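Quick one: examine this chain and its backbone structure tokens and tell me how the chain folds. Here goes:
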Amino acid sequence: MSERENQVDSDSVVSDGRRRSRRHNQHQHKQNNRHKKKESVEGSSSNYMHIGDVDLATSTETERNDSHKLAVSTLRLGESNFLGFLEEQVEARRQAEAVHASQVMINSLPLHVLSRNAKAQKQLKSQFLDTKRTLKDRESKLTEAERRLADLESQLTDAEERIEEASAREVELLSEIANLKLEPKRLLTQQEIMKEEHKNEVAELQSGIERLSKLLAQKESMVTMTEEEPDLGANAYQLQRLSEAGTRKDLEIEELKRKVEDQESDLESLRELNSTLMMKEYRDEDTDVAEAANEGLRSLNEALQKDLDKEREQHAEEKRKSEMEMRKFSEALKGVDELRNAAEEMSRELQNVKRYGCAPRPSNGTDRYDNPSAAKVKKATDLMASIGPPPEEKKSQESWWQSSLKHFNESLMDEASVSSRASSNTKNSRKMNGFSDRSVISH
């Protein structure tokens, strides 16, 4: 019975060793397939690599090969130790079987032979006990070796999982680096296209401003050269329309200039970033390079966002100032309308004076004459004089509408003086001929 148990134990040990060797072969085959798959992934991802990234790929490949070699060597060392231990166990089993066979043979001998060989029997029994004790020690060592082998297999599995995660992270980092290197080029091309478009728009606006300025100069020359009385209403409307168009064009030009300056600054920063990314060497072990690059891009984005907010605030401030100027300009245009109406009334009165040769009578018994047209003219001029230039501008600088208003006032006063002289001459001639104003009025 003990011989059969020993035989079964030896067979189980041998089958266990064969099973473990088969498992090791399967594990080695799986690891080789995984290594080939990683090499194919590295070959496909190497298309995104440039000359500056060769050191990163080489260092990563070297580290991965070192870890793989270390795991394989550890597994082979454990396998060799385990196989040697199995051989020792098989040899111990054989010795135990030999001792057991000798004991069986001794037990089968007659009693007189056993009595004569009692000393030899004691020696064989002690040898059998020693062999059995040695076999138990070897079994405990075998159990310990199996436990260590299981630990090594678990460590190897963990190492393989870490290698797979590292390879996946490496592929992701390579794709991100390739995208980051392509992004500045795309932004540069987009900035150049937008810059060309803005240049064309600025050129068109400048040509439109030149055309409007030429047209305004022609209108002014026509107004000064004509001898007839100008149409003040049409001129004032044309003047208002041209001034509004010029103001809008100036605002559009300033906005486009600011946009061009912002885009040029963005283009310069992107060029610096592109040069930095092309010259930088990625030699870190993990994702430090990608994190640093992302942090730099994030800080650049925050700085650009701050600049954009600042430019928006400046634009709002300039818009507010321009609205105030346009409000003042509209008030000035109202004054121009009032002045035009007063001038028309004064012109009608002058025509009456020229026609009838009479002047208005004093209304309050004094030497002063209450002329409503003159009062309106004075009110309009006082209103336009009260609207001064903005506090930011100097007093020496005079806008074009103020100069045109001054020119209009001078021409109006000249016309009034000429008409008053003509009316006084007509009145004196009528008095010399024996006529009076009262007779004319009574008739």
Remarks:
- The chain has a mean pLDDT of 66.
